[in-house]
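Many introductory courses stop at the sequence. We go one step further.
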Amino acid sequence: MNNECSCNRRTAVATLAGTGMALLTGVGALAQSDPKRMRPQPGDVLVYADGAKANAAVLAADLKVGAPQVLAWAMDPATKTVRDGSKLNQVLVIAVDPSKMTDTTSANAAGGIVAYSAVCTHVGCLVEGFEKGVNRLLCPCHQSEYDPADGGKVTNGPAPARLAALPLKAGASGTLAVAAPFKGHVGIGPTS
């Protein structure tokens, strides 16, 4: 009798595990097919994430060297779908002195404008702070600092990896467009 019960439990556990995996796979496929949850796509235009300019295009002319970053989302210009369905899609956009950029940073920039994942690689907080004078991006949760001129490299704090870069290109009428998918791991990251 015990063997029969054991077998039934094993069968039940295997069935539940299979059902769980099928559900997770289905949810993952749904997330990938939802345009709002898709990562920024080449050709998407950057729009302000919040405030009075929410969903308006971020213009290169509005960003000044030495000024704090702007939080943004990518928007499909054809459908006007803002890709705000996942925190991992939020990007920060900042103007950097081109003479201070590394070659890799310059290759991902539109003029002096660069974009990175806004999600700290330490515990996933938004990198919303800015350290004026040294021009560092600052995560307010645990004080990790990133250098936007050096590919989002960690310069201080517990973050284990640099921010993922989002390559940009100049868009129509001074807008900023996504040139290629994120380079690097988005979100809480492996050590680099």
